[in-house]
Amino acid sequence: MFACAPGLPLPDGFLFGASTSAHQTEGGNTNSDWWQLEQHGAVAEPSGDAADSYHRWPVDIDLLAELGFTDYRFSIEWARIEPAPGCFSRAALAHYRRIVEYARERGMRPMVTLHHFTLPRWFAERGGWSAPDAVDRFARYVAATAPVIATDVEHVCTINEPNMVAALLPRVTAGGERPTGTGLPLPDPGLTRTLVEAHRAAVAAVRAISPTIRTGWSVASQGCQAVPGAEEVTAAYRHPREDVFLEAARQDDWIGVQAYTRTRIGPAGPLPVPEGAERTLTGWECYPDALGEALRHTAEVVGEVPIIVTENGIATADDRSRIAYTHRALDGLAEALADDLDIRGYFHWSALDTYEWGSFRPTFGLIAVEPETFLRVPKPSARWLGRIARSRTLPSAR
C-alpha cells in the first residue's frame, strides 16, 4: 500500500526534509516572551526542557541524515541572539553557525527560519510588533545574523506563518487560550501591515548579507472550501487570513506553504468539523488532501513564484495514520508536480515530537522523544519517508 516506487521522479535540487522550531525543541528559552507567558500560567503546559535540542542538536541532524533526508529546516532564536536591545550574543551566533556547518558536514542543506512565533522578552515588553520601531528592530536583528547565514545557507525563511501571528498574537498576549477549532480570529490589520513591512525589510537585510540566498516566508493555508452558495463569503473570509500574505510574496524568491487541514465555509462563515470525521490530536479534521489544494491555491495567487512546502503533517499517536496521511498528502504533491506547478521542496512537520504551544500531547514527530531521558527513537514513518527522500521518487497516484 505504501510502496515508494514506481512513482514520480523529483526535480533536480528538490528539497526533501523535516522542520523544527527553536522554542519547541531547544528548551530553556528563558528570555523569550513565550517562556514568560508559560511561567504566568497563560498556557496550559510550560515548555521546560522541551526536547533539549539546544544541546542534542547533533543527534537530531545525525538521525535525519541517516534516515535519508537531504534538508533540515530549523529556526534560530532571536531572544538568545539579542538578549537585550542592541546586545548581540557572539556565543549564540556561534552556536547556530555550528548547526549550519554540521548539517553541511552530514550532507544536509539547512533552511534557516529567522522568526518562528517567539520574541525577545524586551521586544515584547516594548509593544512587540505594535511598537513604532518594530520593523527597524527586526531588520537590525536580521542583519546581525550574518555570521550564521552568510555562507552554506541557500534558503532563509523570514517569518513563520505571519497570518497566524497577526491573528493569534493579540489573544495569546492577553492571556487567552489559543484556538484549535474553526473560526480563527481575523488577523489584526495593523499587525498585518507591520509584518509585511518587516518581511520586506528582512528580505533586504538578507540580500545585503548575501545576494545568493533565496528568501521567502511561510504562510499557513486556511484550506477554505465553500459549500454551494457560499463562494463570495469564502473569498471574503480567506483574503485577509491568507491571500494578503501570499500577495506580499509575489516579489520573493519562493513562498512557503504550510498545510494540515481544511476550513469549510457556509453562508454564515466557518462550519464545524463534519460529524463523524476523523480528528487529529489537535482537534483538527484529518484531511490529507489539504496539501494538494493549498499548493494549487497558492500558485493561483502568487503566479510564477516557486513554492516550497515548509510544513505538512499530522498530530497522531498512531504512526500508521501518519504514514497514511502523508502518503495521501504526497499524492497531492505528485499530482501538482505532474501538472507543472513549480514546487521546489517538501519539509515534514515535524522532525521530532515537540512542544506544541501549550501541550506536549499533540505528537507530530517522525522521531519520538522520551521525556525523561530525551532518547530519540525514529518511528516507522521516519524510515518510510526517509526512503522516499533517498529514492528521489514520490509515490504517485497517477
From TrEMBL:
Would you tell me the protein name for this molecule? Beta-glucosidase
- Which family would the database say this protein is a member of? Belongs to the glycosyl hydrolase 1 family.
* GO CC list: cytosol
Gene Ontology terms describing biological process: carbohydrate catabolic process
Is this entry keyworded Transmembrane? Answer: no
Q: Which UniProt keyword terms apply here?
A: Glycosidase, Hydrolase
Q: Which PANTHER family match?
A: GLYCOSYL HYDROLASE, LP05116P
Q: Does the keyword Hydrolase apply?
A: yes
In its UniProt record, a GO molecular function of this protein is: beta-glucosidase activity
Family annotation (InterPro entries): GH, GH_1_N_CS, Glyco_hydro_1
